[in-house]
Amino acid sequence: MKKIINQVFYWSIVSLLCIQNAIAQTRPRFSQYTVNHHLINSASTGAYGYSQLHLVARNQWLGLEDTPRALAFSGQFPLTLFSPSPAKSLPTIGTISYSNRTDRPDGYQEAPGPVPAVGFLLVLEENNRHYRRHTYFNLAIPFQVTKKITLALGGGLGLVDLRQKSDGIGFLDSKSITSPVVDGGIFVYSDDFFGGFASGKMFEEEAVLPEIPNHNQTAIYYHITGGYRWRLNANWQLIPSAQFRIVESQGANVTLSTRAVYQEKNWAGLSYQEGKAIGLLAGKVFGQIELNYAYSFPLSSVAFDRINNHEFTLKYRWRKSLYRFQHNLF
Length: 330
Description:
The chain contains two helices and 15 strands. It has helices spanning 2-17, 32-35, and strands at residues 51-59, 69-78, 117-126, 130-144, 150-164, 176-189, 193-202, 221-228, 230-231, 236-247, 251-262, 266-273, 277-286, 289-298, 309-318. The chain has one domain (2-223, 284-318): Porin, CATH 2.40.160. The protein is 6% helix and 47% strand. It is mainly β. A hairpin with a 3-residue loop joins strand 3 (117-126) and strand 4. A 14-stranded antiparallel β-barrel has the order 1-2-3-4-5-6-7-8-10-11-12-13-14-15.
């Protein structure tokens, strides 16, 4: 236990030092659809049946002064207050349930179906020209379609605050834009596949800050995601997945990823973002803690927001009815 606590402390410090860049994005999205999907589609919130806290950090141009950086803190929590929680079963996908074991304890009962869940996201971003602060809350309501397949509907509301850095005071500066953002989605998943569609829009009250880049995000955006778990043998799994991002009047972009998972605790993979970047992905599960890392190589000289881009995601997961965790399908 002491060893795990030390690991959490160490990686928390690393994440805080390697704070993320998201200058051209409303929310962190580079590798998050593979490890933190509720940031992409609110309908996937709480799909695994346990509570999670995530710390996402990304740093651009590591080693230079005034580099773009940001820190994101998020969480998702099933609303299990009025739902029974068996002591020795697992109402979740992606992990091993006592219902699949022969040594089930006395008094075992089947796990309940999926329950609604809530999530939140807090993002703080900074570069040498502006600050960006994003506060976001979402809700997902799942429906059991079959014994193995669940369909969920989700929606979210938030505020994005953009501030120009003119005198170093930050959020007290006078030039600013505060814009509401709304989104919704649908998500279908099982133990071995997932697919989803989400759409959102930012409603800017003003558009008078040309000093702040990428602030004009009033266009509607769409996300289509999907993936499949291919079980090669008892130890190895291959998880190919894809994300299609469509922005009104700006066209579409596709990201393809493949992860190889060993014994459900260690994984590595590659990600290709069409015409922009190639990413290296890796992660490891330490009990209730999971650490994920991504590094991107730009494919274009104009892809400045992806140059030397380091991204860390630290997860902490808990629920009494779980007895072990593994790397998630999404």
